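re: that complex we talked abt at group meeting.

here r the seqs, copy pasted straight from the sheet so there may be weird spacing, ignore it
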Amino acid sequence: MMDQSVEGYVTEDGRQIGGVLMELKNITLRFGGVEAISNISFDIREGEIRAIIGPNGAGKTSMLNVINGFYHPQEGQIIFRGETRSRMKPYEAAKQGISRTFQNVALFTGMTTLDNIMAGRTLKMHKNFFWQMLRHGPALEEEIEHRRKVEEIIDFLEIEHIRRTPVGQLPYGLQKRVELGRALAAEPSLLLLDEPMAGMNVEEKEDMSRFILDVNDQLGTTIALIEHDMGVVMDLADRVVVLDYGKKIADGLPSEVQNDQAVIDAYLGVPH
Amino acid sequence: MGKQAASEALTSIPALLARNAKKFGAKPAYREKEFGIWQSWTWLEASEEIRAIALGLLTLGAERGDHVAIVGRNRPALYWSMVAAQMVGAVPVPLYQDAVAEEMGYVLEHCGARFVFCEDQEQVDKVIEIQDKVHHIEHVIYVEPRGLRKYDHSHLHWIKDVQAEGRAAQQRFAKELEERTNALGYDDTCVMLYTSGTTGRPKGVVLSNRNIIESSKNSAAFDKLTADEEVLAYLPMAWVGDFIFSIGQAYWTGFCVNCPESADTVMADLREIGPTYYFAPPRVFETQLTGVMIRMEDASRVKKWLFDTFMNHARKVGPQILDGKPVGLWDRFKYWLGDIVIYGPLKNMLGLSRVRVGYTAGEAIGPEIFEFYRSLGINLKQLYGQTEASVFITLQPDGEVRSDTVGVPGPGVEIRIDEKGEVFYRSPGVFVEYYKNPESTASTKDAEGWVATGDAGFIEEGTGHLRIIDRAKDVGKMADGRLFAPKYVENKLKFFPNILEAVVFGNGREFCTAFINIDLTAVGNWAERNNIAYASYQELAAHPKVYEMIQSHVEEVNRSVAQDEMLSGCQIHRFLILHKELDADDGEMTRTRKVRRRIIEEKYADLINALYDGSKEIYTETEVTYEDGRKGKISATLEIRDVAVVGEGKVAAQ
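got the structure back, here u go
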């Protein structure tokens, strides 16, 4: 396994990855008698693309929900930006700069692409409710500023043509892209993607991969993603953590993980 | 620009730019939508941007006579790069942006480009891919930096950096630049454009400043274009039409070129800009009309009634009103009312409210489609042109517009029809040569400057309008000696919205047969309304009900073809619906979507055999190329249908 020192590491494509952004220590999450996650520790470093993989029911989404503050682990510590995090609500996590997309697209289907992404800016809006109701003066100025940001995201994700289309009418691949746009609108420092390519065809997957790499590269956003497509994971991720039945079975560079006996067993199946 | 103003002579595009910067300095020259807002550049600003690129090219060592390739969608920066290349004495060579790397490699190799301007990462990747084969490419310059940050930048430059370096080198190179720009003469090369060509490798058509400027001048006068026109630049930059409209005529008259936000937003941008001068191939008009008709099918009954009533009236009197012919007062009133209720809003929806001069060319346009737009009061006309002619051969003058002719010879153009029926022309726009291909030049253009169009046609008596029948080489004889003109029949088939493409066979054969491609939008919508379920193009194409519908279309075409005595032998006896769309990526069509007959004949030889051997169905496997260049196979069993023909005793092959 790789060196877990504080200084960081060098990725397979030769990039230097910096210090720890989030550290998860001995996390255990139970639902009644079921242990969804047992005693898992790993870290996410500044600027990397970190993949969480594992067979169905391995606890991947639960892990994401823990990071995002939706679930509260019974044991363990989460250290984000050097501070131990107390029990928090998802919107508090969002305020700290963690945003996410969902396994099943969760957009406002009746609203346009533009409005959906604008919704992602909610936490950045500071003018009070009454100003915004008037849509005048400072509130208007603020809206223009946010609109600019939203337009930059639209440009970035190449969805100009659906700017004014209600997202309910869009094909699945584009909805996924809009959802990514909404997550980006919050200008997150940590972006969580839950199966960003599920149900996509090859071309859509290639597009999405390119967008994920561009987000990471251009905007410098740290990304943690869950993905089933191994090809995609091995290409995209800088480091991979593998879960199986709620336990961590491997953690390291894609090439290391790929050749790990425990991982091969977990995917191909051996009696437990 | 220089005080001695050698540029007053206006013998080059850069000279026209200098004039426009002086004369129309504060008028917008370019607009492009970015971040949802239209950004604009005046002629003065544009000339400064172009000059910076030109100086930048000098710092990179551009020489006179170099070829500079430009590849990407229509963007101001790429148009500027072309003019900047001209300023340093180099020749711009715009390429088709959707060409796969291999095709692009051939052209880059052939023209020996040292510089390539790319729009984005996608194009840069293609250039990098072919660089181990094409060695003379020295510098690649890109417009959109996205995704390129980590690339090796030893020979890769962002256009803004090139401009910055150019501006910084002002003192060093200003004199050199001025000398080179002022040295540009009327007979120097203005641009080199590769024709997509229905056969063989693309050829580089060399057009001089004289060709481009004279053609632009003549055609602008013909349609009284002014500096206040607005055009939308959305057609491929590698196509001669775009070069004439967006550079030639724009620089000659000083009008504004608007670039869409992205390829997918063209229709929305069209609506926002409302061009006054507009060109579109028939296919675009067809698609728009199909879209309107589909939406009207789903409209409420009141709206549908209004639409039908007023459109009927428009068909009756619209074209006459447009041509300035006498129309009764009551009819005029009804038309005026219709304009408020239907035509006006419809034109606005289509983005054609302000069109003063509209052209279509490239293929024959269906008479119904043509009439539809004209009846709305849109001055849509036809022209006939070629890359080799700097576009214009014939144009329809206002008031003499019909769907079955292509107009009268443009100003300065002479036309001659040879004994075999092929059309020849001679004009100031006639190209200089095919680059590095003297044999083809000699076989196309004779010593007196007459150029063979390769099209068969005739001049209509009385009106002097030219009518085109078909490609001269495609016109053949059937086994019994009757005339075979496939395109004539194909066009009639394609006028049905349900039929996207058709390929007719029959040269040297007993009877004619056809391949049909259905239009997925139109047929898909029809299927939805008729509760026909389908999962793919292939499944829909093979559906018996679709076959029935297409059969009725083919029979209607047969009835219409039978009326023309000369061509009655071209009726279709048997047809099949192809399991895949004909595609440029598979080499079956050109990038401008013209059918490549020979390639299709080779590739689908098994299907053609089946059309003639009397079989009821045929199993076939076809190789397809995906957008990224990978190949795959699709297989299908295709049904073959016999069709009723008119006025002939014999029945097909059984």
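couple things i noticed - Residues 1-5 of chain A have pLDDT under 50 and may be disordered. Chain A has two domains: 1-97+189-272, 106-187.
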